UniProtKB/TrEMBL annotation:
Known role: Protein kinase that recognizes phosphorylation sites in which the surrounding peptides have an alpha-helical conformation. Regulates cardiac development and cardiomyocyte differentiation by negatively regulating Wnt/beta-catenin signaling.
UniProt protein name: Alpha-protein kinase 2
Catalytic activities: L-threonyl-[protein] + ATP = O-phospho-L-threonyl-[protein] + ADP + H(+); L-seryl-[protein] + ATP = O-phospho-L-seryl-[protein] + ADP + H(+)
Species of provenance: Rhagologus leucostigma
Residues covered by region (Disordered): 161-201
Length: 201
Protein backbone atom coordinates (compact mmCIF):
# COMPACT_ATOMS: atom_id res chain seq x y z
CA UNK A 1 0.00 0.00 0.00
CA UNK A 2 0.99 3.64 -0.40
CA UNK A 3 1.16 4.09 3.37
CA UNK A 4 3.57 1.18 3.80
CA UNK A 5 5.71 2.50 0.92
CA UNK A 6 5.72 5.98 2.48
CA UNK A 7 6.97 4.53 5.77
CA UNK A 8 9.61 2.48 4.04
CA UNK A 9 10.88 5.46 2.03
CA UNK A 10 11.00 7.87 4.96
CA UNK A 11 12.72 5.41 7.27
CA UNK A 12 15.26 4.52 4.57
CA UNK A 13 16.00 8.22 4.06
CA UNK A 14 16.28 8.52 7.85
CA UNK A 15 19.05 5.89 7.88
CA UNK A 16 20.98 7.91 5.28
CA UNK A 17 20.44 11.07 7.35
CA UNK A 18 21.91 9.33 10.42
CA UNK A 19 25.03 8.32 8.46
CA UNK A 20 25.30 11.88 7.13
CA UNK A 21 25.04 13.26 10.68
CA UNK A 22 27.73 10.86 11.93
CA UNK A 23 30.10 12.20 9.26
CA UNK A 24 29.14 15.89 9.46
CA UNK A 25 28.70 16.48 13.21
CA UNK A 26 32.37 16.01 14.17
CA UNK A 27 33.48 18.57 11.55
CA UNK A 28 34.51 21.86 13.06
CA UNK A 29 32.01 24.60 12.28
CA UNK A 30 29.41 22.31 10.71
CA UNK A 31 26.94 22.68 13.58
CA UNK A 32 23.49 21.12 13.74
CA UNK A 33 22.63 18.50 11.14
CA UNK A 34 19.15 18.03 9.62
CA UNK A 35 17.30 15.01 10.97
CA UNK A 36 14.52 13.02 9.32
CA UNK A 37 11.99 12.09 11.98
CA UNK A 38 10.86 8.46 12.24
CA UNK A 39 7.47 7.44 10.92
CA UNK A 40 5.68 4.43 12.44
CA UNK A 41 3.18 2.17 10.77
CA UNK A 42 0.21 1.08 12.84
CA UNK A 43 -2.26 -1.64 11.93
CA UNK A 44 -5.89 -1.08 12.90
CA UNK A 45 -7.75 -4.25 11.85
CA UNK A 46 -11.21 -2.93 12.81
CA UNK A 47 -10.83 0.25 10.79
CA UNK A 48 -11.83 0.84 7.13
CA UNK A 49 -8.30 2.05 6.52
CA UNK A 50 -6.33 -0.69 8.25
CA UNK A 51 -2.93 0.99 8.03
CA UNK A 52 -2.00 4.42 9.29
CA UNK A 53 1.22 6.22 10.09
CA UNK A 54 2.15 8.00 13.27
CA UNK A 55 4.90 10.56 13.68
CA UNK A 56 5.99 13.35 15.96
CA UNK A 57 4.09 16.58 15.39
CA UNK A 58 6.35 19.35 14.14
CA UNK A 59 5.43 22.73 15.58
CA UNK A 60 6.56 25.89 13.83
CA UNK A 61 6.91 27.18 10.29
CA UNK A 62 6.86 24.29 7.82
CA UNK A 63 9.33 24.93 4.98
CA UNK A 64 10.00 23.00 1.79
CA UNK A 65 13.75 22.88 1.34
CA UNK A 66 13.44 21.06 -1.97
CA UNK A 67 10.49 20.25 -4.17
CA UNK A 68 9.71 17.07 -6.03
CA UNK A 69 11.02 18.21 -9.39
CA UNK A 70 14.24 19.55 -7.89
CA UNK A 71 13.87 22.94 -9.58
CA UNK A 72 13.43 24.92 -6.40
CA UNK A 73 16.15 23.25 -4.42
CA UNK A 74 18.92 25.77 -4.98
CA UNK A 75 16.99 28.88 -5.80
CA UNK A 76 14.58 29.66 -3.00
CA UNK A 77 16.03 27.69 -0.12
CA UNK A 78 19.76 28.07 -0.27
CA UNK A 79 19.79 31.20 1.89
CA UNK A 80 18.87 29.34 5.06
CA UNK A 81 21.31 27.18 6.97
CA UNK A 82 18.85 24.27 7.05
CA UNK A 83 18.25 24.66 3.30
CA UNK A 84 21.97 24.60 2.53
CA UNK A 85 22.53 21.59 4.77
CA UNK A 86 19.64 19.80 3.04
CA UNK A 87 21.26 20.47 -0.35
CA UNK A 88 24.53 19.12 1.01
CA UNK A 89 22.71 16.05 2.38
CA UNK A 90 21.30 15.41 -1.10
CA UNK A 91 24.77 15.78 -2.63
CA UNK A 92 26.28 13.51 0.05
CA UNK A 93 23.72 10.73 -0.58
CA UNK A 94 24.13 11.14 -4.34
CA UNK A 95 27.90 10.69 -4.01
CA UNK A 96 27.65 7.84 -1.45
CA UNK A 97 25.37 5.86 -3.77
CA UNK A 98 27.38 6.66 -6.91
CA UNK A 99 24.53 8.73 -8.34
CA UNK A 100 21.99 5.91 -7.98
CA UNK A 101 19.84 7.42 -5.24
CA UNK A 102 18.68 10.89 -4.22
CA UNK A 103 16.60 11.96 -1.24
CA UNK A 104 13.99 14.44 -2.50
CA UNK A 105 11.16 16.48 -0.99
CA UNK A 106 13.17 17.67 1.97
CA UNK A 107 10.74 19.63 4.10
CA UNK A 108 9.96 20.29 7.72
CA UNK A 109 10.41 22.68 10.59
CA UNK A 110 13.96 23.91 11.12
CA UNK A 111 16.29 20.91 11.05
CA UNK A 112 13.50 18.34 11.56
CA UNK A 113 12.32 16.89 8.28
CA UNK A 114 9.40 14.71 7.23
CA UNK A 115 7.39 13.58 4.18
CA UNK A 116 10.56 13.04 2.19
CA UNK A 117 10.81 11.09 -1.04
CA UNK A 118 13.53 9.05 -2.69
CA UNK A 119 14.41 8.88 -6.38
CA UNK A 120 16.45 5.96 -7.70
CA UNK A 121 17.58 5.00 -11.16
CA UNK A 122 15.13 2.64 -12.89
CA UNK A 123 16.80 -0.51 -11.60
CA UNK A 124 16.69 0.73 -8.01
CA UNK A 125 19.61 0.69 -5.61
CA UNK A 126 20.62 -2.27 -3.44
CA UNK A 127 17.18 -3.81 -3.84
CA UNK A 128 15.41 -0.55 -2.99
CA UNK A 129 13.19 1.36 -5.41
CA UNK A 130 12.30 4.96 -4.75
CA UNK A 131 8.87 6.59 -5.09
CA UNK A 132 10.01 9.49 -7.32
CA UNK A 133 11.04 9.60 -10.96
CA UNK A 134 14.75 9.23 -11.68
CA UNK A 135 14.54 12.46 -13.70
CA UNK A 136 14.92 14.24 -10.32
CA UNK A 137 18.42 12.78 -10.12
CA UNK A 138 19.27 14.32 -13.50
CA UNK A 139 17.77 17.65 -12.48
CA UNK A 140 19.63 17.63 -9.20
CA UNK A 141 22.89 16.93 -11.02
CA UNK A 142 22.23 19.86 -13.35
CA UNK A 143 21.01 22.36 -10.75
CA UNK A 144 22.92 21.63 -7.56
CA UNK A 145 25.41 24.27 -6.54
CA UNK A 146 27.87 23.34 -3.86
CA UNK A 147 27.94 25.42 -0.69
CA UNK A 148 30.36 25.65 2.25
CA UNK A 149 28.90 22.48 3.83
CA UNK A 150 29.60 20.47 0.65
CA UNK A 151 33.16 21.78 0.86
CA UNK A 152 33.48 20.81 4.53
CA UNK A 153 32.49 17.25 3.64
CA UNK A 154 34.89 17.22 0.70
CA UNK A 155 32.14 16.43 -1.84
CA UNK A 156 33.10 16.54 -5.50
CA UNK A 157 31.57 19.32 -7.58
CA UNK A 158 28.86 18.04 -9.94
CA UNK A 159 29.87 20.54 -12.63
CA UNK A 160 31.34 18.62 -15.53
CA UNK A 161 34.80 19.37 -16.86
CA UNK A 162 33.12 20.18 -20.16
CA UNK A 163 31.22 23.08 -18.55
CA UNK A 164 34.34 24.33 -16.82
CA UNK A 165 36.25 24.19 -20.08
CA UNK A 166 33.58 26.21 -21.83
CA UNK A 167 33.47 28.85 -19.09
CA UNK A 168 37.23 29.11 -19.10
CA UNK A 169 37.34 29.60 -22.86
CA UNK A 170 34.76 32.37 -22.83
CA UNK A 171 36.70 34.45 -20.27
CA UNK A 172 40.06 33.95 -21.98
CA UNK A 173 41.81 37.08 -23.22
CA UNK A 174 43.96 37.34 -26.38
CA UNK A 175 47.32 36.94 -24.69
CA UNK A 176 46.39 33.58 -23.13
CA UNK A 177 47.06 30.85 -25.68
CA UNK A 178 44.83 28.19 -24.14
CA UNK A 179 42.45 27.51 -21.29
CA UNK A 180 44.96 25.39 -19.39
CA UNK A 181 47.09 28.50 -18.87
CA UNK A 182 44.01 30.25 -17.56
CA UNK A 183 43.30 27.42 -15.15
CA UNK A 184 46.75 27.83 -13.64
CA UNK A 185 46.10 31.51 -13.09
CA UNK A 186 42.64 31.27 -11.58
CA UNK A 187 42.48 29.12 -8.45
CA UNK A 188 39.68 26.57 -8.68
CA UNK A 189 38.02 27.73 -5.50
CA UNK A 190 37.87 31.34 -6.59
CA UNK A 191 36.32 30.44 -9.91
CA UNK A 192 33.58 28.28 -8.43
CA UNK A 193 32.84 30.84 -5.78
CA UNK A 194 32.30 33.48 -8.45
CA UNK A 195 29.89 31.22 -10.32
CA UNK A 196 27.97 30.70 -7.11
CA UNK A 197 27.65 34.42 -6.40
CA UNK A 198 26.71 35.40 -9.94
CA UNK A 199 23.92 32.83 -10.15
CA UNK A 200 22.34 34.17 -7.02
CA UNK A 201 21.10 37.38 -8.65
Amino acid sequence: SVVIQECYVQNTAREYAKLYAAEAEPLEGFGEVPEIIPIFLIHRPANNIPYATVEEELVGEFVKYSVKDGKEVNFLRRDSEAGQKCCTFQHWVYEKTNGNLLVTDLQGVGMKLTDVGIATLAKGYKGFKGNCSFSFIEQFRALHQCNEYCEMLGLKSLRTTHQKQRKATSTKSKNLPNSSTLKKMVPKKGREHRDFISSEH
